[in-house]
Amino acid sequence: MASSIYSSELGDLMSLRIVVTDGIEGTVDMDWGDIYPIRIAYLIASDLWMLSDRFNTLTTEQQTELTTFRQALRDITNYDTANDAADNFPTPPDWMN
Questions:
Q1: pLDDT digits (tens, 9 = 90+) for 40-92
Q2: Inter-residue contact 79 to 24 (CB < 8 Å)
Q3: 32 class by beta-carbon count within 10 Å (0-12 exposed, 13-18 middle, 19+ buried)
Q4: To the nearest 10°, the Cα dihedral for 14, 19, 25, 26?
Q5: Which of 7, 57, 59, 65 has the most other CB atoms within 10 Å of its CB?
C-alpha cells in the first residue's frame, strides 16, 4: 500500500530539476512549495515503519537507515534555498521500495 509512494510517484527531486531543451541540459528553479509536499508525503509514508511493532521487525541497520532518512527529511528545511534542498533531498532506503 504505502510502498508505492517511494518510487516513481515522488521520484528524485534532482531529476525533476533537470530539463533538456534543444539538446542542452539545464536545471529549473524549485520553490519551497515543490519541496514541502514531497517531504510530508515521505514522512507520512514512513510513519508506518516507526510503529513499534513494525520498527522492531527491522534489522539494526534498517532502523538506522530509517531514522537517518526521516531526520534528513526534517532537516531539509535547514537549507537556504529550495534548490539546495532539492539537490540534497534524501533518498529512502532501498528496502522501503
A1: 999 999 999 999 999 999 999 999 999 999 999 999 999 999 999 988 999 99
A2: no
A3: middle
A4: -70
A5: 65
- 41 with 63: CB under 8 angstroms? no
CA dist 83 and 46 (Å) reads 24
pLDDT band at 29 (very low <50, low <70, confident <90, very high): confident
Q: What are phi and psi of 20, to 5 degrees?
A: -125, 120
Cα separation values, 67 from 3, 21, 61, 87, Å: 17, 39, 10, 20
What the block records as the C-alpha cell of 83 is: 534548490
Nearest to 76 by CA among 34, 20, 26: 34
- Tell me the three cell numbers of residue 39: 517531504
- Residue type at 39? R
